[in-house]
C-alpha cells in the first residue's frame, strides 16, 4: 500500500534537485546568500549557530535573563555570525586562507565582527551604571554606540541589501540636521552625542522592543518551523492538500493554494514557502495546461499568505502583542478571517481560470488517499497541536515554542527508532538536530540585524517627534482632497460619503501606497516596524483602532512580495517555472487582489477582525459576506469568466459591483447586487440551455 501511494505521489515530483532549489532560493532571497567557508571556519560558525539555538531553546523553557542582557547576547552573536555568514560583495565561489584572510575570512570582516560583538555586549556589561549614563554619556559610551551603529548598517546591508541602511541613514541625517528641514518637519536638531545616547543607552532605540521581540519570541518560532519541516510536517501538508483538492478542475493549482495555506501556518517566509511547495506544484500545474507564468503566480500569491496565517504569522504577530499590549490569542483571532479572504481570492481565480481553459483535475490514479496519508504521518502533527494548545491556554509564546520544539525532537527520535537500530537512530537524531538548530539560527540572522537597525529609525522618531509631524501632513492633504471630492459630488441627490469618510479613505490609500513602496526593498518585519512608527499615528488621528491600523500596514507590507518591480516571491516561482519573471509578478499581484481589498474592508468595518471594540455579528456578516462576493466578482472580471466567457460590458459591471460589494454598507451592497444581476442571470440562462457563450 505504501508503495502504491508513493507511485501516486510521484506525479507531483519535480525535476528540480535539492541543490537547484537551494540555488533558486539564494538567487531571489538575499537573506539566504551565505558565503562559502573553509572547513575550520565552517565548524566554528556551525558551533556558534548551534550554541545560539541551544541558548534560546533552554531560556524559552527555563527562564529568560534580564532583558538588556538577553538582547545584548542575542545581538552580539547575531552580528558576529552575520560577518561569518555573509560576504561584503556578492557570493564568492570559494574561501581561501591567507595572511589577509585568516581562516578564510578577510581581516576587515574580523574587525567588524569583533567591534560589533564588543559594542553589543558593552551595554549589558555597564547595566548597573546605565541609569547614571543615560543623558550624560561618557566618551567611551559614544565611541561604542557609534561602532555599533556603523556595524549594524553594514551587517544589515550584507544580509538584506541597501534599502533599509539607506533609510536609516536618512533618518539619522534628519535627527542631526533638523534645524535645516522645511516647514513642519523642522526641529532643533540633536548633537551626535545626544543621538547615540538615545539610540544606544535607552530602551527607545537599538535595544528596544523590536530586538526584544526577535530575541524572545521570533527566534523560537523560526526554530520550530525548521524542525517541524524536518520531521515531515511540511510534506504531510502537501500530500494532504493533494489528496483533498487535486481531483477538482485545475487540481494542482488548488493543491498549491491549500498546501501553501497549511505550510504557511508553520513558516512565515514567502520565498521559502514558494520554493518548498512550488518545486512540486508548479510542474504539475504546467503539465495539465496552465501557462508557466500563471503557474508561478499561483504559487507566489499563495505562499505570501503564510505571513498572515495563524498560528505563526512570521515575526509580526509577536511584535503586535508587544506594541498593542494584547494576548497572542487576540492577534491570531483577528488574523483568521483576513487570512481566509486571501486564500479564498486566489482559489476563486484559480478555479475560474481552470474553467475558462477547460483544465482537468487529477485522476484517482494520480492522487494519494487522504486517510492513508494522514495515517502514515499523523505523528508529525503532534508538535503543531502541542504548540497551538499551549498558546490557547494562555501561557507565554516562548514556552509554547519550547514545548513545540521539544515535541519535534521527540517525534524525530521516534521516527529514527522505527527506521533504524538504536545506534544508527541516535546518530541520525543528533545529526538532524545539529542541522536543524544550525539552520534555524542561520535563518534568524537577517531578521535580527534588521530589527536592531529599525530600532535606530524608531529611536529617531521618538527623539524628534517626526511621526506626528508626518501624520499632520498626511491628514491635512487627505482632508483637502476629501473636501474637493465632496464638493464635486454635491450634484448627486444623496450623499455618497461624508468628508470624514473620504478623508479616511484617502489617508488609507496613501498609507497603502507607502507600505507597498517600502516593501519593495525591505522585508515584511522591518517594513511593519517602520510603518507603525510613522503610519500608525496617522490612522490613530482619524480614530482607527490600534489593532486595525497595525493589521492594515502589515497586510500591505506583505503585498510587496508579489508587487512588481520587486516581487521576490513571484520571481522565485518564475525561476522554478522557467517563466517570464515580470509577467509572473503582474499575474501574482492580480491573484492577490483579495489581500489588497480586505484591509480597506476591516478599516471601515473593524468587526471583520472579530476582537475589535464595538464588534457586532451584523457588521461582521455584512463585511465578510460582502467581501467574499466582491472578491468573487472582481476575480470574474479579471479572469473573463463567471459561468462562461463575459462580454466587455459585463466585466465592467462586475468590477464596479465588486467595489460596492466590499464596502461595508447596506446601500452599497444592494446597488452592487443590482449591477451583478444582469450578467449573472444571462449567464445562468444560457448555461442552462447548454449554449456556448463567446466573450469579448
From TrEMBL:
Residues 148-612 form the TRAP C4-dicarboxylate transport system permease DctM subunit domain. This is TRAP transporter permease. The keyword Cell membrane applies. Keywords: Cell inner membrane, Cell membrane, Membrane, Plasmid, Transmembrane, Transmembrane helix, Transport. GO terms for molecular function: transmembrane transporter activity. GO terms for cellular component: plasma membrane. Pfam families: DctM. The chain crosses the membrane at residues 41-60, 72-89, 110-128, 134-153, 160-177, 206-228, 323-348, 368-392, 399-418, 443-463, 470-491, 497-517, 529-556, 596-617, 629-648, 654-677. Part of the tripartite ATP-independent periplasmic (TRAP) transport system. It is a multi-pass membrane protein.
